[in-house]
Design brief:
Length: about 425
């Protein structure tokens, strides 16, 4: 065979090979990697499952999940945003939301919602509203927490006290706490609630139930120092003084959920994140129940959500929205139900079904009356810490009114920044 013919055949084979490779080369060129930032390792398997399904449905998009411990998450995200290299999609929470929205770190999602498949009516209303800023929906709620009251049936039986029900009142709770104190004779505490941190699973709920809003609203200043608020603080002071609750010092030294799980408390205010640990604990799961929080002047409570946000500087906004849309679908939300209450109201019921041995539907029922976790200004963590500092003194015995009078104006100024 002549060298010329051989060369011709080689060229022909090369051309065929190139033609066959062309779709692969174009496919590779079209590959996009989305960076997605999260902070909870316990929820990583569910996130990976959702990402895998998304990649199968969208073979030209790869999702790179970036896990950062919660304590370092916003430090890292702040730095990345300042450098213009924030992840395409990231978790945002309510305390940091306004700061990120006001500083232009998140892309508004309202334009994408108009032609998209995300129906905000299917999501817990208080969470949807919490992630709106300047007339725009800035993030899509991912999950939601709510608060309920757990009770130990053995301790109630031991004290001869009837179990609480969903329609009980604050006066009912105080009456039961008094009866439990008498009946238990010091063997266990009637009630515990965590007063040492931000109040999401304790005093914030009481303030909402008393009719307060905590943050400025409708042109009115914060009401954390008004008569209703002082009443709440003094109610808790009195219950600690009367031995119906441990002292604030005791509850800061031992986690309230641990006191309850060791059968040393008859009742505990607890967030939905503790539902599975309680229900799966063999030391208590055959003699515990859970009900909605008692009503004061109205039925209410705190609901906090994480949400999906898109970086304003993402180079792949259409793909980022496609992923947010996929994660917000009922199917993806049902996957999250294995670990958290999904923000989707239909999928939220699946969370309750996932938890065996104890009926935890009061958490889902509570979502119908909750208000969003209170945030104000661009530095919610700062004013919260100032408030917590004052409350710690109050719960240790300081006069509630005089202590709040000292700090409320400073707190108010931070809220308005």
């Amino acid at each position: 065979m002549s060298p010329r013919k051989n060369a011709g055949r080689f060229l022909m084979h090369s051309a065929v090979a190139a033609a066959l490779l062309l779709p692969t080369m174009l496919y590779a060129a079209d590959q996009i990697t989305l960076r997605y930032a999260v902070w909870d390792r316990n929820q990583l398997p569910a996130e990976q499952e959702i990402a895998k399904r998304f990649e199968q449905a969208n073979p030209n998009i790869k999702v790179e999940i970036e896990l950062t411990p919660a304590a370092q998450y916003f430090v890292k995200l702040d730095s990345a945003a300042a450098g213009g290299v924030a992840p395409d999609v990231f978790w945002i929470n309510m305390p940091y939301f306004v700061q990120y929205a006001k500083n232009g770190i998140m892309a508004p999602l309202t334009p994408y919602l108009k032609d998209g498949d995300v129906n905000l009516d299917n999501i817990v209303a208080s969470s949807v509203k919490a992630y709106q800023y300047d007339g725009q929906q800035m993030a899509i709620p991912r999950d939601v927490d709510s608060i309920a009251v757990w009770y130990n049936k053995k301790l109630f039986d031991q004290a001869g006290v009837s179990y609480p029900t969903n329609d009980w009142s604050w006066d009912d709770l105080k009456k039961k706490a008094s009866e439990l104190k008498t009946g238990l004779k010091g063997s266990a505490f009637p009630l515990v609630m965590d007063l040492s941190i931000d109040g999401q699973d304790s005093y914030m709920n009481l303030l909402f139930q008393k009719g307060n809003h905590i943050v400025p609203k409708n042109g009115q200043p914060t009401d954390i120092a008004n008569d209703n608020a002082i009443w709440v603080y003094e109610q808790l002071q009195t219950m600690m003084k009367d031995g119906q609750m441990p002292t604030a010092q005791q509850m800061s030294e031992v986690k309230t959920e641990n006191i309850f799980q060791s059968n040393r408390a008859a009742m505990v205010y607890a967030g939905s994140w503790l539902a599975a640990p309680f229900a799966n604990n063999p030391l208590i799961n055959d003699h515990i129940g859970v009900v909605m929080m008692p009503k004061i002047e109205r039925q209410s409570g705190v609901a906090h959500s994480l949400a999906y946000a898109m970086s304003a500087k993402s180079a792949h906004k259409q793909e980022a929205w496609k992923y947010i849309e996929f994660m917000s679908s009922e199917a993806s939300q049902a996957t999250l139900a294995k670990v958290v209450i999904p923000a989707n109201k239909v999928a939220a019921k699946a969370w309750a079904e996932e938890i065996k041995k104890v009926d935890v539907t009061p958490y889902i029922q509570t979502l119908e009356v909750t208000e969003a976790y209170p945030t104000a200004g661009t530095n919610t963590p700062k004013w919260q810490n100032m408030w917590i500092t004052s409350l710690k003194k109050i719960f240790m015995g300081a006069d509630a009114r005089s202590e709040m009078d000292k700090s409320v104006k400073k707190i108010e100024r931070i809220m308005e920044q």
